[in-house]
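Lecture notes, structural biology module. Today: joint structure prediction for complexes of two components.
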Amino acid sequence: MAKSLTLIEQHPAVWRGNQSPSLLAKRVPTCIADLDTALSGGFPEWGVIRIRARQGTGELSFLKHLVGQKPADKLITFINAPGHILAPWLKNLGVEPIHCWLIDTTDEFSKWSAEESIRSGACHCVFLWVNNLSPKQARRLQVATEQHHCQVIIYEALSCSRRALPIPLDLSLYATEEGLKVDIHKQQGGWAKDDIYFSFSYTPNNQKLHDMMGRYGSSVTAASTLRG
Amino acid sequence: MLWLHLHFYQLSLEHCAQAINSEDPWVVYQASSNEIKQLNHSAKKAGIEIGMGLAEAAALTTPLRITDYCEQTERQLLNYLACSLYQCAAEIALIPPHSLTIRIDTLTRYYGGVNNVWFALKSLLSQLEHQYHFASAWTPEAAEALARAQTNRFFTQQADIKKALYSLPLSRLLLSSKQHHSLARSGVKHVGQLFELPGTELGKRFDNKLLQYLYACRGETYPQRLFYHPPEQFDEHITVPFEIENTQHLLPYMTKVIERMGTFLRLRNKATQAVELTLHYREAEATELTIRKATLYFSDDEWLQLITLKLSTLILSAPVISFQVTALGLQEVGGQDNDFFHNRRHIFARQQLAGKLAARLGESSINTPKWPYDHRMQPDSKTMTHLTRYYSDLPGVVLKQPAPLSGTPKIEFGPVRVETAWWSDEKHKRDYYIAKNQHGQRMQIFREDNRWFINGWYV
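The predicted structure, tokenised, for the full assembly:
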């Protein structure tokens, strides 16, 4: 029994939940206290990270601190983003738009582009929007990131079914009234943890206007809900 | 087997000449035996020869620069030389005070040929700027005899070695004068003649040692040599040939040592944060200087700059007779350090990546993020210039084509009215809002002609 267990432990795709994080990649804090605690310091400096989220829930903006810390002379590639990423928004995120590339291609080529970007050594971060990545493909990307010290963030729609992947970090992101909720499905060097809530706001709103209106008791109620 | 013998015939002289560039006749003189050991070109031109007495040499030319011969210094210099050669060859045997022998045949696998080994060694030796006589042969003894005859040829064929060796005069072999004399008396003048004599006959007249030596020269015994092992730490002690009162004169010697330190560290993938420099005086207490750097570094030129700076401010209390350079606390240069060319590599890597992606996906598939050209919240592909305006209400991702809105999202911000391009056919009059739907997704929506569209997402 003991022998067969040892064999399993030697398998590169298997790691123990309590494996010491010091042996793993360095952690980069996200500056969201609860999340950093749950992730034992932050996101791994390199490797594949899957974030399952609906688009438009701040799935990229909440990584502001992480992305802004990266070396400025290396590239960030966005592969198959749901639209055209705007330069001013990147600038707000702390990223120089000239060091970003947007790659727009088919699903099949998106994985190839991601691998090439990692292997080129020119990128420090690759954002890839893809659904239903197979474990084999994920493994391939993971090996490449380890060799070239690159970070790959895969965005997957919540609507597609979750498959287990051999990657060091697997998250789901949900929008809540106050901000975001993160479920950590799996992480290397730590335990899974659900329901990490934190407040997060990244878009301007009319709250001030509403407050003013409320204070002066205006009878005018803003047509804040659309009909039709 | 193939061995290369290198005979450095003017190590001390070259050591002296590092600091002073002089055209004057210059000799290295050994007082104990009253003979000239080494001489430079001008001295040779004046008629001085090796082995002459000092009085004879001095009578031939004035002025004559004389440096005392010190075997210890010469041995040290040979050791440093071996350390430098170690980057090219592994099996180096020292023959103090001024020769060394290198086994060549074991290196051919790494260099892809015997001649390549020789080219590598030759280019390294030319960098070190030493004069030498050399020859290659099947055993160290045979190579030494050929080098002593100043053959200066790199033989690779057995027949060539045999031919050269057999035609050598007997005086080139390491025989005692007595042995030499008795052989000459019996009519043996060339090495070839001696080699053809049967061993048993020679054994009757000469001792075992000579026989062993002859067999070794003929390549009939397996040579046993103690090979050189480079030291683990970098620590060099240099005796300068004359007393140095000015730090400026110390620098040429220092440069050589620091260059050697650079090579030493680079070969071992080590780096140091501190270098200790000790200056020795004839009577006064030695001065110890420690030069530190904030980061690990093994390149010699930065160290040299630092040492030059340090020395320029130093006033010597007494003339320096020797100095010592020690690299303190050697550390492994790990993978976590940035490599030296990482900036340059990225440029090439980026170009390569662009080429690869464009070749497979087509050039139109690769874009850089765009700025909106005017107040219209659309990226503009034609120009890179942009308005400096308040951008915080722009979404991260803009759809290629606005999509019709379905559902009833809640408006969080807005409206922002944009009315422009009235001068063209593409009249633009839209009210933009930030809205959030029941799933918490934030989007930029706009109303145009009483219809609602999604413009982009706040990712």
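Point to remember: Chain B has a mean pLDDT of 84.
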